[in-house]
């Protein structure tokens, strides 16, 4: 029930994201303390824990926003510990909602095309990417069309992003991530600030379109985590307390009492 158990044999080949001894200190304070994660291809992994447990810091280390004090991060076997966030996205290794921007003055299709082009032409300015001839770029139009269909955005493909309903805008935000065809999607509290209905709609969207995707989610919302996760890692004081299926985590007394506020499956 720890990540060490999937760090062997054939399963290791399927590990897309791995952190080894990942540690972040701020002065004498250790926010993330020797964290080992092994996230398999197609897995939906959530990271939970009480306030100050180190979730956001761990997320920042994986996304590249922060540099670890110790330890390594590999994505698809490549050591990305010293790569910048842009390099990690440009290398098509990971993508988070925090790195996406919806351009309100552009159509849904144009927004998706920009995101799709970002993967192949990450070094270009947004304007150059947008106005570059997409017919000349193999795969970009195809990826845009695929995302339009997968997310049910085809009916609003030519609508300006500023005119979208709330739900369609959320779909577009997910679409911008998927348009880069990332190996791993990083999600940082995607339902923060949402109403109950909006959260339910977002959960349904994730279940619908992120089912095959490798995802790492950092989240406070326990209901969301229990519904969408294949496995959950619980952190406390920067250390991994337990990793397991939602059922295993819900049945773990330490986790239930300390982190889930009495949640029962
Ligand atoms: N830049 C920083 N400098 C100093 N201490 C920091 C810094 N960033 C985070 N910390 C500390 O590290 C600890 C972990 O913070 P982090 O934000 O990662 O926790 P969290 O689990 O995401 O918490 P929350 O659920 O409240 O968002 C906290 O005690 C925080 O005060």
TrEMBL record:
GO terms for molecular function: ATP binding; ATP hydrolysis activity. One of its GO terms (cellular component) is plasma membrane. Pfam families: ABC_tran (PF00005), BCA_ABC_TP_C (PF12399). InterPro entries: AAA+_ATPase, ABC_AA/LPS_Transport, ABC_transporter-like_ATP-bd, ABC_transporter-like_CS, BCA_ABC_TP_C, P-loop_NTPase. Gene3D superfamilies: P-loop containing nucleotide triphosphate hydrolases. Keywords: ATP-binding, Nucleotide-binding, Transport. Residues 17-262 form the ABC transporter domain. This is ABC transporter ATP-binding protein. It comes from Halobellus salinus.
């Amino acid at each position: 029930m720890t990540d060490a158990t999937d760090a062997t044999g054939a399963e290791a080949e399927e590990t897309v994201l791995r952190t080894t001894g990942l540690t972040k200190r701020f002065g004498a304070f250790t926010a993330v303390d020797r964290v080992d994660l092994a996230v398999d291809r197609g897995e939906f992994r959530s990271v939970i824990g009480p306030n100050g447990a180190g979730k956001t810091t761990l997320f920042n280390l994986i996304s590249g926003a922060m540099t670890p004090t110790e330890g390594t991060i590999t994505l698809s076997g490549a050591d990305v510990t010293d790569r910048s966030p842009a390099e990690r996205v440009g290398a098509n290794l990971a993508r988070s909602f925090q790195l996406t921007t919806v351009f309100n003055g552009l159509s849904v299709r144009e927004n998706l095309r920009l995101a799709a082009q970002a993967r192949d032409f990450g070094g270009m300015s947004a304007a150059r990417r947008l106005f570059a001839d997409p017919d000349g770029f193999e795969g970009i139009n195809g990826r845009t069309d695929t995302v339009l269909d997968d997310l049910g955005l085809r009916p609003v493909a030519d609508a300006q992003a500023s005119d979208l309903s709330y739900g369609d805008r959320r779909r577009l935000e997910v679409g911008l991530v998927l348009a880069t065809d990332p190996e791993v999607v990083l999600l940082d509290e995607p339902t923060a600030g949402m109403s109950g209905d909006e959260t339910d709609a977002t959960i349904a969207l994730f279940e619908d379109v992120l089912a095959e995707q490798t995802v790492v989610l950092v989240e406070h919302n326990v209901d969301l985590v229990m519904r969408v996760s294949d496995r959950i890692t619980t952190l406390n004081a920067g250390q991994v307390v337990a990793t397991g299926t939602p059922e295993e985590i819900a049945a773990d007394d330490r986790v239930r009492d300390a982190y889930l506020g009495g949640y029962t499956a």
